[in-house]
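>> received
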Amino acid sequence: MQKTAITSAEIAPVLAERWSPRAFDESYVATQHELLSILEAGRWAPSANNMQPWRFSVATHGTELFDQMVGALTGFNQAWVPRASAIIVISILNQKPDGTPYPAAMLDAGLTAQNMMIQTTELGLFAHPIAGMVHEDMRKVLDLAENLSPVLVLAIGKLADASTLEGPAYEREIQPRVRLELDEIVLHGKP
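>> returned
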């Protein structure tokens, strides 16, 4: 299935081809090189004051940690994520070194996640970002320190046919990609 973005101006192919499937080929094994490449892309994301507040937890399909991470997900995510080749949980430092709150860390988590998703696409794989988790359960599964908060999960894998899914997951998988038009989101300084 191909879901290339339809845009009003050309964008980089890796961005146009990136989308978030739920149908993963559970027989595909992500290589160490692929996972390291994805993690390196995340490591080199920009961050406020170069604080790099992200921490990554990685588990591959077939491991106990992978199953425990899936168990900390919510809703129908538990039905399709087990077919992924790997799961990466992005956690952030929830306070600065001086102990004050660290709200910019959430933005930085989004930047590192986007870098990782773009790199995944560049490798010919797919990544699906997931916010639906029981945060305290994921914290326990990963044995995170109190100053770390899990914020996002990336399911990584090779695309499978949508027919491997059922119900709402299948319906979402076959829908076309849509975005608001630029006229709806550019408020000032229209080109």
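>> Residues 13-185 form a domain with the NADH Oxidase fold (CATH 3.40.109.10).
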